[in-house]
Amino acid sequence: MNILAFSQYERADWVRLGCLVAAILLPFTPLANEYVLHTCILIFLYMILALGLNVVPGFNGLLDLGYVGFYGIGAYTAGLLTVHYGLSFWVILPLAAINGAIWGVLLGAPTLRLTGDYFAIVTFGFSELVVLFITNETWLTRGPLGLPGIDPPSIDLSWLGGPVIWLEGDSLGVYYLVMALVLVTLFVMYRIQNSRLGRAWFAIRDDELAAVSCGINLLVYKVIAFAISAAFGAVAGAFYARWVTVISPDAFLFWESFFILCMIVLGGLGNIWGVMLGAAILVSLGEVLREILPLLGLPENSRFLFYGLLMVVMMRLRPAGMLPIAAVAAQMKTTSKRRLAWFKKKGSAA
Amino acid sequence: MSPILEIKNLSKNFGGVKALQDISFDIGRGEIIGLIGPNGAGKTTLFNCVAGVEKPSSGQIIFHPDDDTSVQVGGKKPEHVTKLGIARTFQNIRLFDALTVLDNVKIGRHCRTRSNFFGAVFHTPSQQQEEVAIERDARAALDFVGLKVDYHAMASSLPYGEQRRLEIARALATDPKLLMLDEPAAGMNPQESKELMDLIRRVRDSGVTILLIEHDMKVVMGVCERVVVINYGQWLAEGNPHQVAKDPKVIEAYLGSGAACDAA
Question: CA A71, CA A64: separation in Å to the nearest integer?
Answer without folding.
Answer: 13
